[in-house]
Structure formats: structure tokens, C-alpha cells
Automatic annotation (TrEMBL):
Keywords: Hydrolase. The lineage of its organism: Bacteria, Bacillati, Actinomycetota, Actinomycetes, Kitasatosporales. It comes from Actinacidiphila epipremni. Residues 1-128 form the Nudix hydrolase domain. This is NUDIX domain-containing protein. Pfam families: NUDIX.
Length: 131
């Protein structure tokens, strides 16, 4: 089980996605917890590391938790769990050195993200949040 936490940022019906350097796939921003780190601590650290903004801890709200196989080319048993949260932020969204680019995706871009992210896309579309 690969345990991750992700930041769901939607603006104008599009969701923020990031492509790490050296990868050809976009992901919902976030990452893996370190040790016994809480979801909140992981979220705050990962988003600051990836996008150089500070999330407001008081505004963090759980959106959902999703599980899916890692995807093509991964071991059959590899499963990703992604706990998703919304939050307000301070600063300017700027990719850090570990992020090659950011993009705003709509539902039509669903195929460009991993299976676990696709589950989030489906729920956001059903809720009317994702164009």
C-alpha cells in the first residue's frame, strides 16, 4: 500500500495537477507521508515543497479517500491510497525544482492522470465541481 495525501484545488471548474520532473504523468499535488506524520502535516509539507505555497491549516477539509491499483507497469499488488483535502493557501502557485510543470485539468483530461486520481475526477464531476 502506497499511502499518499493530496491537495484538491479547483478553480473555474478545473483541478490543479502537477507533473514531477522525470515523469510523464500528471498527479494531484501531494505526496507520501514520512514516518508517523499525520495527514495534515504531510499535506502542508508536500504542498509547500512542490508548489511553494502555504496552506491554511484551519481551512483544510477532507474531500474523500480513494484506493486504486498503481497503474500500468507497476507490480500487480501495488495499490495507492490517496486521502484528498481542500484548503485555502497563501502565496503564488509556483512549481518547485521537483515539479516540471503544473496544469489545470477538466474532466476531459481524466485519462492523463493515474487510476486513483481518476476516481477523484469522477466524484468531482458527479458533484458538479469539475467541468
Amino acid at each position: 500500500m502506497i499511502d499518499t495525501v493530496a491537495w484538491v484545488r479547483i478553480e473555474d471548474g478545473r483541478i490543479l495537477c502537477a507533473r514531477p520532473r522525470g515523469k510523464d504523468v500528471f498527479y494531484i499535488p501531494g505526496g507520501k507521508r514520512e514516518g508517523a506524520e499525520s495527514d495534515l502535516a504531510t499535506l502542508l509539507r508536500e504542498i509547500e515543497e512542490e508548489l511553494t505555497v502555504a496552506l491554511d491549516p484551519a481551512s483544510v477539509a477532507h474531500v474523500g479517500t480513494y484506493e486504486a491499483p498503481l497503474g500500468p507497469g507497476a507490480p500487480d499488488a501495488a495499490v495507492v491510497r490517496m486521502a484528498c483535502y481542500t484548503a485555502d493557501y497563501r502565496g503564488e502557485l509556483t512549481p518547485s525544482s521537483e515539479i516540471a510543470e503544473v496544469a489545470w485539468f477538466c474532466y476531459a483530461d481524466r485519462a492523463a492522470v493515474p487510476p486513483v486520481d481518476q476516481l477523484l475526477f469522477d466524484d468531482l464531476r458527479a458533484a458538479g465541481s469539475l467541468a
